[in-house]
Design goal:
single chain; alpha/beta; 8-stranded parallel barrel; 11 helices; globular; binds SN-glycerol-3-phosphate
Amino acid sequence: MKFFIDTANLDQIREAQALGILDGVTTNPSLMAKEGITGADNIKNHYKAICEIVDGDVSAEVIATDFEGMVKEGEELAALHSQIVVKLPMIADGVKACKYFSDKGIKTNVTLVFSAGQALLAAKAGATYVSPFIGRLDDISTDGLNLISEIRHIYDNYMFETEILAASVRHTMHVIDCAKIGADVMTGPLKAIEGLLKHPLTDSGLEKFLADYKKANETDSPEAPGVGF
Ligand code: G3P
């Protein structure tokens, strides 16, 4: 399972990268605005800065909503860096643009996917990634994880190569449940990734190991290993 971080915050991207488990980054216009990144040139430079931090795919979303606009913008984004994936909305022109880019060998991420039918269309258009938003479905009393299961089932039936990128992940249980279902990728906030580290028995166990080591090595026993291992 690939781990992407869903943010435009460079410090958080660096922190996740330093853990050694990061496979890529997803952004969207809201996340860019949250970091105060505005204006086409600043936005492009920010994408390049993200690509310099991580080794994997970096999704950059188009703002245009018509086919020609998406193609122009997507080509500009893809030219910024080899790691850029063109992120397109799940609307008719987005599907057309997805097909256009996949025919040209440019990676795509079809976003704002909320149904199995939309995911089927994205796969037919040759999307590299499809992004079902699980948290936003949960927000309206609809089981987001069930959508991941449905898409997994459909894609496996036909061996579609489009990767299921579980998006709008909000917490650690989303990550674990997506892994159980077989999502290819999850993208979430740093807290959902770092939350996976936590267990009180790890903390208390480590505390006891260190206390026992210290106690044993404070004696003059000849069997005791030397301090400094
Ligand atoms: O990956 C999509 C994501 O940015 C949306 O997350 O939490 O705004 O639903 P959220």
